[in-house]
DNA sequence: CTGTTAGCGCTTTCAC
DNA sequence: GTGAAAGCGCTAACAG
């Protein structure tokens, strides 16, 4: 059907092996022969058969990038950065496979299986991980197996995997061969973590310094590492400032997804519970936009009546009105680093983990609380 | 090294062929045998070798999705939609490969080669196409070849490919086999186009109806189909309303990328050229945010002094302050449809092309022009 | 430097 | 219903 190596070899008057060598370029070939082969390739419009070469060479040039939501720029930026590192010299070009898990543990595993089938050269898991112990164990086992088989595993924006840990009886055979395959490339998973805790803590300290005491939190989904870390940072700041503030923390916290409508709904719920709150911390910038919309529709001014802060510092945050105070995560740098790690082009950090610093970006959406503000105007939101 | 089909067969006490049949499920196998095989698979933690099976079956389960900028939600939303259609029943699961071309023609071709190597089941090209004749011809030829080889080709958000057209001598052998390979699946490229022209036209008509006459345009990159179509729609509306308006059209148009800073810079340039303009049309919503920022920093109010409109209706547009008047493109629906077409799960529309309607979304950023407004305040932007 | 020779792991007729 | 055998197209030792 299609043109094969043999066809090219025939036309160039050489053996298939020679054509293969010319194409992969990792072997000495006479200049004359090489150009003759190249010409034949051109003339026949030959295109290497990927599966065949992957089968014979037992390697593939696929790199999987798992994201929780590709429509969210948070992931788009990281994916783009990972991919930008995947094309060094024309030769070792890798193909990034972006897989959208939708945040579902099952799909995460499913895609990993697909990637495993393809004998992917590496996989990069981005964003928060689900904290269900069962899933975590299954995921860790799967990733360890892939790493053992030579696939590089990089975690970007989530904490390291738990160690093999506790005994795990009732398992099929072959479950004890966890040790590396004497392969050399089979280092365990590498992590590029974000300092969500520190960022959240600094953000809350900023609000506290401005004089806020009743700070609402529209947190992310429960059972997610990122959600937990940001909340922990927030509460640590509260505790350090005045342990008494912790008393109201639960009432001042609602959970939702990392999206606009969760911010909108969450803000309304918070306002219902605590009409006199003076600030709202959103799960991320996207949710912050929803919070702002809800406040505005309720008749509250930002930051006059209520201060609002986001997280991530996505591109649109600086352009929101008012510009959003948020915590910047160097997503591009983190993704690029993950990409290099996935290719083995960067030394693995000590302990297999690097933490990316986050930076507080103070902008117009936060200001000192207005003392003695009247509670929520009657009427409620207009939508 | 890894567990193979033969290992599973041995453990289950059957032949490799039987295991293969059980796994692919497209062949009658005795119930008892099937469960025995399945158990062996479980116990051995067997994972199919993708390349090997792709080689033997001469098909792959990869679907390539080419995007111009994965960090842009415009593409993220479409990619996500395409992918969401790629997993019907557990069985025929396809793996979406999102490739970021960065809008570069070379990379577009490079990725297509990579996909061709992998014998991708389908490729979906999203977003605007570069209009360089040479590239267009190369791209069309390449896509036709892939389609001829059985790969489904879908264009989403760009116009159909040109027909083979003019004679193209001086070509290698095998360049005349363009006709389908009697394969059945080898239909030519299918297109899901956006009605950019109509949307732009309606947007401009809206502005015209409000009373605007000096409308600036921060258009997208030159030589891009989307840019040209939106500009054509704009000018058609102008011409229909009053041909005299066309005279200033060129002076009132600047080009940039589809990003925030292009909108920012473009708005300043437009203001410099035409201080008394009363409205600005941005290339897309992201650029519109930049336009708004520039206007605000210049001391102009939106829509009081200048109306602003975007294009695409990305999620954040409704939350901008003021909420952005824009043209909604049903990106998710379009992407989903492209995904179904790529899988052959939806009938090819007549003529191989479907046009997705666009919808004018009138919000708060556009209003009647203020008559007799004073020109740009002195001082200029503060950044 | 180049050709020969074996497979890589799976799918798929064709017999039984 | 199941097994046997013949490749799919390429790479990777070995010879020469």
Number of domains of chain A: 3
Computed over alpha carbons, the radius of gyration of chain A is 26 Å
**How much helix, percentage-wise, in residues of chain A?**
25-40%
Structural class from helices and strands of chain A?
Answer: alpha/beta
Please state the average pLDDT score of chain A.
Answer: 89
Q: Any low-confidence stretches of chain A, pLDDT <50, length ≥5?
A: 166-186, 373-383
State the CATH topology of the largest domain in chain A.
Answer: Rossmann fold
The CATH homologous superfamily of the largest domain in chain A corresponds to Response regulator
Global morphology of chain A: elongated
- The N- and C-terminal alpha carbons of chain A lie at a distance of 61 Å
Question: Total helix count of chain A?
Answer: 12
Strand order of the largest sheet of chain A: 2-1-3-4-5-11
Q: Write down how many β-strands of chain A occur, each being a DSSP E stretch of 2 or more residues.
A: 12
What series of H and E elements makes up the topology of chain A?
HHHHEHEHEHEEHEHEHEHEEHEE
Please, could you describe this protein's structure?
Two copies of one chain form a homodimer. In chain A, 40% of the residues lie in helices and 14% in strands. Chain A has 383 residues and is α/β, with parallel strands linked by helices. Chain A has three domains: 5-48, 434 Repressor (Amino-terminal Domain) (Orthogonal Bundle); 60-194 and 332-357, 3-Layer(aba) Sandwich (Rossmann fold); 196-325, Rossmann fold, CATH 3.40.50.2300. In chain A, the strands form three sheets. Chain A has a six-stranded parallel beta sheet with strand order 2-1-3-4-5-11, sandwiched between helices. In chain A, helix 5 packs across helix 12 and helix 6 (105-117) runs parallel beside helix 7 (133-148). Chain A is elongated. Chain A starts with a helix and ends in a 22-residue tail after the last strand. At the A-B interface, helix 3, helix 4, helix 5, strand 2 and helix 6 of A face helix 3, helix 4, helix 5, strand 2 and helix 6 of B. Chain B binds a DNA duplex (16 and 16 nucleotides) through residues 4-6, 14-21, 24, 27-30, 33, 48-49, 51-58.
């Amino acid at each position: 059907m299609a043109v094969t190596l043999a066809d090219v070899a025939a036309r160039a008057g050489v053996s298939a092996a020679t054509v293969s060598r010319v194409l992969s370029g990792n072997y000495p070939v006479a200049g004359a022969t090489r150009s003759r082969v190249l010409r034949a390739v051109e003339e026949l419009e030959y295109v290497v058969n990927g599966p065949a070469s992957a089968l014979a060479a037992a390697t593939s040039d696929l790199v999987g990038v798992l994201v929780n939501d590709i429509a969210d720029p948070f992931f788009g930026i990281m994916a783009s950065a990972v991919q930008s590192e995947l094309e060094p010299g024309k030769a070792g070009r890798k193909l990034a496979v972006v897989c959208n898990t939708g945040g579902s543990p099952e799909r995460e595993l499913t895609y990993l299986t697909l990637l495993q089938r393809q004998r992917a050269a590496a996989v990069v898991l981005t964003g928060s991980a689900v904290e269900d112990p069962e899933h975590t164990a299954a995921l860790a086992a799967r990733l360890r197996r892939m790493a053992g088989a030579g696939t590089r595993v990089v975690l970007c924006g989530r904490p390291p995997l738990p160690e093999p840990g506790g005994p795990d009886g009732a398992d099929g055979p072959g479950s004890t061969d966890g040790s590396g395959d004497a392969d050399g490339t089979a280092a365990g998973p590498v992590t590029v973590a974000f300092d969500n805790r520190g960022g959240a803590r600094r953000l809350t300290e900023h609000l506290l310094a401005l004089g806020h005491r009743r700070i609402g939190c529209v947190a992310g989904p429960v059972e997610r590492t990122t959600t937990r870390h940001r909340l922990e940072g927030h509460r640590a700041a509260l505790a350090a400032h005045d342990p008494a503030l912790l008393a109201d923390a639960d009432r001042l916290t609602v959970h939702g997804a990392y999206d606009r409508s969760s911010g909108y709904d969450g803000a309304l719920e918070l306002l219902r519970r605590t009409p006199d709150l003076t600030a709202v911390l959103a799960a991320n910038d996207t949710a912050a936009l929803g919070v702002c919309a809800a406040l505005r529709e309720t008749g509250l001014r930002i930051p006059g009546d209520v201060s609002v802060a986001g997280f991530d510092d996505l591109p649109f945050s600086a352009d929101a009105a008012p510009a959003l105070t948020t915590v910047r995560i160097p997503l591009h740098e983190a993704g690029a680093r993950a990409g290099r790690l996935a290719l083995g082009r960067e030394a693995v950090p000590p302990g297999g983990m690097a933490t990316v610093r986050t930076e507080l970006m103070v902008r117009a959406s936060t200001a000192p609380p207005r003392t003695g503000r009247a509670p929520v105007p009657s009427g409620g939101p207009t939508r």
